[in-house]
Design a protein that fits this description.
Pfam families: AraC_binding, HTH_18. The protein has two domains: 5-161, Jelly Rolls, CATH 2.60.120; 163-274, Homeodomain-like (Arc Repressor Mutant, subunit A). 41% of the residues lie in helices and 23% in strands. The chain has helices spanning 115-131, 141-157, 166-180, 188-194, 199-210, 214-232, 237-243, 249-260, 264-272, and strands at residues 8-19, 25-27, 34-41, 43-47, 51-55, 58-62, 69-72, 79-93, 96-101, 110-112. Strands 1, 3, 6, 8, 9 and 10 form a six-stranded antiparallel sheet that branches. A four-stranded antiparallel sheet has the order 2-7-4-5, with no helix packed on it. Strand 8 and strand 9 (96-101) form a beta hairpin. Helix 6 packs across helix 9 and helix 7 packs across helix 8.
């Protein structure tokens, strides 16, 4: 099943800090769950059918079932943290909660983190190992939070595997600005100019990675926020329009009806209508 990153839940089976030595070799013992290997220091070779040279700042992800053999460098032995975990898609819909185990995550087998992400990963793996106390009530809560942060960092870093040029980084900055500043009066042309990239390139990259134009992505973000305002608050529609970056209530109502099939007020009335309890037979 394809993972929806916003709906992932995790369970940790084991966390191990591993200090290897000259001549160290091992295999992946537990293959029925997901595994992360974070390389804190040193160098070595991982083999899964293909051969990968691993070093400090590398994250290795293994889906269930994948065979692995490992060998440490004689001159610079590996220091790494291993996490053995399971994960599932656990989303809430009209019918309530639904749980679906994930047999793999959309991550590359090997990621080389840039400097800032490598520092963050080091801290997260150290914190996860320190805070994982399964025998204590609530002793896994912090470590699960750290693992979710690791997943988020790995997910955000994944596109850099194929795109290292500065223009792609500009695309990521524009995407982030749309996600975080959607409530502002944003114009794609201004963002392209600000980040020194052409509008045509931006459109190409958004369609390649998100399957929609920059404008459509911004519209989707604003619409998602508007739906939550209408579903869970009594804030006036005019104020919601302002909070979601629309020029006025008319523009917001027109855009909302186009995307959702009903006007904001009608959508709110339908979503907030109390459900009638059915009598027991």
């Amino acid at each position: 099943m394809k993972s929806n990153w916003n709906d992932i839940v995790v369970h940790i089976f084991w966390v191990l800090n591993k200090l290897t030595f000259k001549g160290w070799e091992d295999i992946r013992q537990n293959k029925s769950r997901h595994s992360f290997y974070w390389i804190h220091e040193g160098e070595g070779v991982f083999r899964t059918g293909e051969t990968f040279h691993v070093r400090k700042g590398n994250l290795v992800y293994l889906a269930p079932g994948l065979e692995l053999s490992m060998k440490s460098s004689d001159n610079d032995p590996l220091v790494m943290t291993m996490i053995y975990f399971d994960c599932a898609d656990y989303r809430y819909g009209d019918a309530g909660w639904g749980l679906q185990p994930l047999d793999s995550l959309e991550l590359p087998l090997l990621q080389q983190m840039d400097r800032d992400r490598a520092i963050r990963m080091d801290l997260l793996f150290e914190a996860l190992h320190r805070d994982w106390i399964p025998s204590r009530s609530g002793g896994e809560l912090l470590s699960k939070g750290h693992l979710l942060a690791i997943l988020e960092c790995a997910h955000q870093a994944a596109p850099f595997e194929d795109e290292q040029d500065s223009t792609f980084r500009s695309y990521l900055k524009v995407k982030q600005e749309l996600e975080e500043q959607f409530h502002q009066r944003l114009h794609i042309e201004d963002l392209a100019r600000k980040h020194s990239v052409s509008c045509s390139y931006l459109r190409k990259m958004f369609i390649r990675h998100l399957h929609m134009s920059p404008k459509a992505y911004l519209d989707q973000i604003r619409n998602d926020h508007a739906i939550r305002y209408l579903s869970y608050s009594d804030i006036p529609v005019k104020k919601i329009a302002e909070a979601c970056g629309f020029n006025d209530e008319f523009q917001f109502s027109k855009a909302f009806k186009k995307m959702n099939g009903s006007a904001p007020s009608a959508y709110r009335a339908a979503r907030q209508q109390p459900k009638t309890l059915q009598p027991e037979p």
